[in-house]
């Protein structure tokens, strides 16, 4: 477990998203935040009905994932969220901790910028704010930075095997998303609802 941002390896968001999705074997739900987070999820496996693509609203991946996790306590649920988006709904970390959502893992992709709106720096980057430390201070004991790809894999495995909630912070590069998610929210909703009706 890595407690600070010191000496973290900068990783590639799309590659890690593919690694995460490829390792899911039990109909786990994955909620992709807006922009690059869901574009990478779409590119990783657009056939998975258990993927939900957040379109148009910043900061809602973790709250939506929390709702899914509470509604389906036997299903593991992952939220993929950028640092800028999480800052829009930072209070959700306290709510996740208060609700003790055991089957939820929030992955925070942190490059310190609002990438899809022009690369403006986030307030967290300017103030050297540690988002994982905020998660821990909010009451999420299993909150860690992934030092490198091997530790990312280990933290995902831990989130799949042990009670949470879990938060995994990842320092990422600025590579833009290579895939554009279809702009079809009704289809995504219907597909996700059908997948969530299937037993784990």
3D architecture notes:
This protein has a single domain (13-196), classed as 3-Layer(aba) Sandwich (Rossmann fold). It has 9 helices and 8 strands. A hairpin with a 5-residue loop joins strand 5 (113-114) and strand 6 (120-121). It is α/β, with parallel strands linked by helices. Helix 1 (13-22) crosses helix 2. The relative contact order is 0.22. The longest helix has 13 residues, at 149-161.
Biggest β-sheet, characterized? 6 strands, parallel
CATH superfamily: Thiamin diphosphate (ThDP)-binding fold, Pyr/PP domains
Residue windows where pLDDT falls under 50 for at least 5 positions: none
N- to C-terminal distance: 29 Å
The overall pLDDT, averaged over residues, is 90
Write down the secondary-structure element order. Answer: HEHEHEHHEEEHHEHEH
User: Helical percent range?
Assistant: 40-55%
Please identify, by name, the CATH architecture: 3-Layer(aba) Sandwich
Total number of beta strands: 8
Based on Cα principal axes, name the global outline: globular
Q: What oligomerization state is this entry in?
A: single chain
Integer-rounded radius of gyration? 15 Å
Secondary structure class reads alpha/beta
As for the CATH topology, it is: Rossmann fold
Structure in a nutshell:
This protein is an alpha/beta fold and 200 residues long.
Question: Characteristics of this structure?
Answer:
alpha/beta, six-stranded parallel sheet, two-stranded antiparallel sheet, Rossmann fold, 200 residues
Topology, please?
Blueprint: H1 13-22, E1 29-32, H2 36-44, E2 51-53, H3 61-71, E3 77-82, H4 83-88, H5 92-99, E4 104-110, E5 113-114, E6 120-121, H6 123-127, H7 131-137, E7 142-145, H8 149-161, E8 166-171, H9 185-196
Parallel strand pairs: 1-2, 1-3, 3-4, 4-8, 7-8
Antiparallel strand pairs: 5-6
Helix pairs in contact: 1-2
């Amino acid at each position: 477990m890595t407690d600070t941002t010191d000496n973290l390896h900068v990783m590639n968001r799309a590659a890690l998203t593919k690694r995460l999705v490829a390792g899911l074997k039990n109909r786990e739900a994955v909620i992709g935040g807006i922009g690059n987070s869901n574009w990478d999820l779409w590119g990783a496996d657009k056939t998975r009905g258990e993927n939900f693509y957040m379109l148009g609203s910043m900061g809602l991946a973790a709250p939506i994932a929390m709702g899914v996790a509470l509604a389906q306590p036997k299903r593991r649920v992952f939220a993929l969220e950028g640092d800028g988006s999480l800052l829009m709904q930072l209070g959700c970390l306290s709510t996740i901790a208060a609700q003790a959502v055991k089957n939820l893992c929030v992955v925070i992709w942190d490059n310190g910028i609002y990438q899809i709106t022009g690369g403006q720096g986030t307030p967290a980057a300017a103030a050297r704010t540690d988002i994982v430390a905020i998660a821990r201070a909010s009451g999420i004991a299993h909150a860690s930075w992934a030092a490198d790809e091997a530790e990312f894999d280990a933290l995902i495995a831990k989130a799949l095997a042990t009670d949470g909630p879990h938060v995994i912070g990842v320092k990422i590069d600025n590579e833009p998303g290579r895939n554009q998610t279809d702009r079809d929210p009704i289809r995504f909703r219907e597909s996700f609802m059908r997948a969530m009706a299937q037993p784990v």
